[in-house]
Design goal:
Radius of gyration: 20 Å
Mean pLDDT: 83
Helix content: 25-40%
Largest sheet: 6 strands, mixed
CATH topology of the largest domain: Rossmann fold
Shape: globular
Number of domains: 2
Structural class: alpha/beta
């Protein structure tokens, strides 16, 4: 195993067993453990249980059933493409790995079922629901090693896949930099969704670079340009518009969120969710 990854996992485990101790993830799951399950309509089902909003989105009839669920399912879904390849030493991808690892260890410590899923352009990788450290650390390594440079993710398709893949209502952490539009309304109908926004500070406070050759992370196309104050102002205006739409989307569908920068201590930001 990569020594840097091992150090990351050891740090994550120490933080969970000390700083996060007492903050059970089940406390983030709203009121108790009674959930509604969404599944495809089958012949003989009561048509009054059809959820027409979700059925319209998916193009198939889905029904909602209430049932008691006494075991918390914690799911970490990472959406990864070239925009993560930013910052010194690929810092955003490493921070995403750290967050996912901490959440995995926290679920294991609380004896909850953990599922890790990550989406890239090349593949979708999922761990089986588990309480074993081995599977959590394998997922951690998969995130750390994922090749994201010069890739572009179809976010809409990935979200549809995630909805169909997760049968059990869950505490669902979505990990992404959220620089692309992501409609989480479908997932929020079935799961308790928490968005973890991963950013590098230079993305939000960019520096003047002057004459520079920029390389697009998704397709490697290069462009010679002058990146001065005007360029910064235009970029920040677009970022502000993106983040305002994001906040409105989260508020509309009761999705909690936390922003974690690459130089943040992860546990201190996650603890804020319990307040």
């Amino acid at each position: 195993m990569n020594t840097a990854l091992k150090a990351l996992q050891l740090k994550a485990r120490h933080q969970v067993y000390t700083l996060l101790s007492g903050h059970n993830l089940s406390k983030l799951h709203g009121e108790g453990y009674d959930f509604s399950e969404l599944r495809e309509y089958q012949m003989g089902d009561d048509i009054r249980k059809i959820n027409w909003t979700i059925s319209a989105k998916l193009g198939l009839p889905y029904i909602k059933e209430l049932h008691a669920n006494r075991e918390l399912s914690v799911v970490v879904a990472a959406f990864m493409d070239a925009s993560l390849y930013f910052g010194a030493g690929n810092a955003k991808q490493k921070k995403l790995t750290e967050v996912a690892t901490i959440l995995g260890y926290a679920a294991q410590q609380n004896n909850d079922l953990f599922t890790g899923i990550h989406y890239t352009q090349a593949q979708t990788h999922a761990t089986p629901p588990t309480k074993q450290l081995y599977h959590i650390e394998q997922f951690s390594q998969t995130l750390y090693d994922a090749s994201v440079l010069n890739t572009a993710l179809n976010y809409s398709a990935a979200i549809q896949d995630l909805f169909k893949r997760l049968h059990k209502p869950s505490l669902l952490f979505i990990l992404s930099d959220f620089l692309e539009e992501m409609d989480l309304s479908l997932l929020s109908q079935k799961h308790e969704v928490i968005a973890v926004i991963l950013r590098d500070r230079e993305e939000e406070v960019p520096k003047k670079l002057g004459e520079v050759t920029l390389s697009h992370p998704q397709d490697a196309k290069k462009m010679d340009t002058y990146f001065g104050q005007r360029s910064i102002d235009q970029y920040l205006a677009k970022l502000k518009e993106n983040d305002e739409k994001l906040s409105e989307h989260f508020a509309r569908y009761d999705i909690r969120s936390v922003k974690i920068f690459t130089d943040d201590e992860v546990v201190s930001k996650l603890v804020g969710l319990f307040v």
